[in-house]
Automatic annotation (TrEMBL):
Gene3D superfamilies: YVTN repeat-like/Quinoprotein amine dehydrogenase. WD repeats lie at residues 178-210, 279-321, 384-408. The gene is WDR70. This is WD repeat-containing protein 70. Residues 1-27, 47-173, 540-579, 631-654 are annotated as: Disordered. Belongs to the WD repeat GAD-1 family. Residues 105-117, 148-165 have a biased composition (Acidic residues). Residues 47-78, 89-98, 126-136, 540-565, 644-654 have a biased composition (Basic and acidic residues).
Length: 654
């Protein structure tokens, strides 16, 4: 087979792509001529377009300047009354001269822009400079024009006005009250979506509240005691919302799911080991706990055994890592609260000696930051919370203070506020969703005022607002960023939700609009209906259409509607025996220990069957019929006959 020559190849290319070759190469475009681009023509077209746009922009800007000048002149005319017509002439001349100068400048700038400018228009400041300072070949974007700076300044002024009034963003126009119990609500938790609220208290109960499924009666749909007889100290939903961390007064934290079923329980450590890092879990009472904000299934707890431990849900038999707070002299110190930073890289803990220690999550030996006198020694710091930007830390101390810290310069507090009494070891503080306010609660003695929710501005730390909650202490507070609603736990067993119909989303707004369901009376009196779908028609019961109709039918039935007779008090009457009490002894006396004595002769009772046994022997007599001797009874004589038969010597002796 001969190869085709060059002429044949060119002929095939001229005629078109070979279909066989396209099939062989795997794509249909093989053999087509590539498209060519003239780069010089494209650059020239781009330059002309840019010059035209620059010219139009400059003309529009000149018109705006001219209009602004006319407005200023009109304002001046209104302020200064004209005294003569010469003033008008001068103004007209000035206007015409300004127009002439502006037109000449526009012509010059347009002429120069046609030769030099490429791209977006120049700002006014650069236009006022001589043209020889501008490079001939300007490529790329230029600095923004001056009017944009003015608009930015206006926006800054608007932001400053909003910053001046952060109180307007507080959602406190409406409130609902959830009745948890009679004892202190010591824990609050809200899932990330804001659909469910969970509360825990000193009464060992954990209650679940569903805003979407709750009506105006505000009743919890589930209540349980996950830790038996231990007070609930902390409740928190995971970042995915499918698990809840339960921290109680015991040494073992629990994780339950959204419906209250247990997922895992941390192991208890060996309390006889000196080094707490060698134990598998906590050995003393827990204080609080927190989920990792980024990693699913990781959480942290702190305890009276002077350790902060991190855990994983998949491995409940041993902690992940152990952090041991120490004083400056290297002695043990008990952490009272702990939390993660917003990015999860830092772990902060406040201790009983008044110090605040911050570790890197992956470095358990030495703390990254350590401030030894953050609060008064011997007072339990109840809460530490990071801001949403992650640079500021707020601490709520047992010395009735609230302090703000910058972790980038952790050598002194930024601000400090005093006069905030607290009597609970879990009093909260939190940041607003926009990071401009800090919220905390105050405690009061019973009957000595009302507990308050106090708001501080973060920038100046001024006490800008406060809300009177109830006549008891405010223990827990939670400001949800998505719902924009504030949840508060109080010392008298109430959980309150504050919201604003215009500023808040969902949450409490869903259940307020629902009317309270009417309780169905005497629903238990109806007969149970058994559904048998495969029963024969003759055995099939008619289906109950409504409860009300069935109740009406049962009321007409004398048997079903018969009222039980009350027990008879005192002696019996009407054929009924009177009751003598409701105790067991009275029941025994009445029914069992009755007097059943029989005064009849027992010998007569036995001999009553002697005639029948003799006539028809069945049990005993047949067995001894052959061996039994014949019965012979002795004859009994009377007393007179015995006296006659006595011998003579006895009579003489008598």
């Amino acid at each position: 087979m001969e190869r085709p020559g060059p002429s044949e190849v060119t002929g095939s290319d001229a005629s078109g792509p070979d279909p066989q070759l396209a099939v062989t190469m795997g794509f249909t475009g093989f053999g087509k001529k590539a498209r060519t681009f003239d780069l010089e023509a494209m650059f020239e077209q781009t330059r002309r377009t840019a010059v035209e746009r620059s010219r139009k922009t400059l003309e529009a800007r000149e018109k705006e300047e001219e209009m602004n000048r006319e407005k200023e002149l009109r304002r001046q005319n209104e302020d200064i009354e004209p005294t003569s017509s010469g003033a008008h002439v001068v103004r007209d001349c000035s206007k015409s001269s300004s127009r002439d100068t502006s037109s000449s400048e526009s012509e010059e700038s347009s002429g120069s822009s046609e030769d030099e400018l490429i791209g977006p228009p120049l700002p006014l400041k650069m236009m006022e400079e001589p043209s020889n300072h501008i490079e001939e070949d300007i490529l790329g974007p230029l600095p923004p024009p001056l009017y944009e700076e003015v608009e930015e300044d206006d926006d800054d002024d608007g932001d400053s006005e909003e910053e001046e009034n952060p109180v307007q963003k507080i959602p406190d126009s409406h409130e609902i009250t959830l009745k948890h119990g009679t004892k202190t609500v010591s824990a609050l938790g809200l899932d990330p979506s804001g659909a469910r609220l969970v509360t825990g208290g000193y009464d060992y109960d954990v209650k679940f509240w569903d805003f979407a499924g709750m009506d105006a009666s505000f009743k919890a749909f589930r209540s349980l005691q996950p830790c038996e007889c231990h007070q609930i100290k902390s409740l928190q939903y995971s970042n995915t919302g499918d698990m809840i961390l339960v921290v109680s007064g015991s040494s073992q934290a629990k994780v339950i799911d959204r419906d209250g079923f247990e997922v895992m329980e941390c192991i208890k450590g060996d309390q006889y080991i000196v080094d707490m890092a060698n134990t598998k879990g906590h050995t003393a009472m827990l204080h609080t706990g927190s989920w990792h904000p980024k990693i699913k299934g990781e959480f942290m707890t702190c305890s009276n055994d002077a350790t902060v431990r991190t855990w994983e849900v998949e491995n409940p038999r041993k902690q992940r890592s152990v952090f041991k707070p120490r004083t400056m002299q290297g002695k043990k110190v008990i952490p009272t609260t702990c939390t993660y930073s917003r990015d999860g890289n830092l772990i902060a803990a406040a201790c009983q000696n008044g110090s605040i220690q911050i570790w890197d999550r992956n470095m358990t030996v030495h703390p990254k930051f350590h401030y030894k006198q953050a609060h008064d020694p011997g007072t339990d710091t109840s809460c530490v919370a990071f801001s949403y930007d992650g640079n500021v830390l707020a601490s709520r101390g047992g010395d009735d203070t609230l302090k703000l810290w910058d972790i980038r310069q952790f050598n002194k507090p930024l601000f400090s506020a005093s006069g905030l009494p607290t009597m609970f070891p879990m009093t909260d503080c939190c940041f607003s969703p926009d990071d401009k306010l800090i919220v905390t609660g105050t405690s009061v003695q019973r009957g000595c005022g009302s507990g308050k929710l106090v708001f501080f501005e973060r920038r100046t730390f001024q006490r800008v607002y406060e809300i009177d909650i109830t006549d008891a202490s405010v223990v827990r507070c939670l400001w949800h960023p998505k719902l924009n609603q504030i949840m508060v736990g109080t010392g008298n067993g109430l959980a309150k939700v504050y919201y604003d119909p215009n500023k808040s989303q969902r949450g409490a707004k869903l259940c307020v609009v629902k009317t309270q369901r009417k309780a169905k009376q005497a629903e238990t009196l109806t007969q149970d209906y058994i559904i048998t779908p495969h029963a024969l028609p003759m055995f099939r019961e008619p289906r109950q259409r409504s409860t009300r109709k069935q109740l009406e039918k049962d009321r007409l039935d004398p048997l079903k509607s018969h009222k039980p007779e009350p027990p008879v008090a005192g002696p019996g009457r009407g054929g009924r025996v009177g009751t003598h009490g409701g105790t067991l002894s009275s029941y025994i006396v009445k029914n069992i220990a009755l007097d059943k004595t029989d005064d009849s002769n027992p010998r007569e009772a036995i001999l009553r069957h002697a005639k029948a046994a003799e006539d028809n022997p069945y049990w005993v007599s047949p067995a001894y019929s052959k061996t039994q001797p014949k019965t012979m009874f002795a004859q009994v004589e009377s007393d007179d006959e015995e006296a006659k038969n006595e011998p003579e010597w006895k009579k003489r002796k008598i």
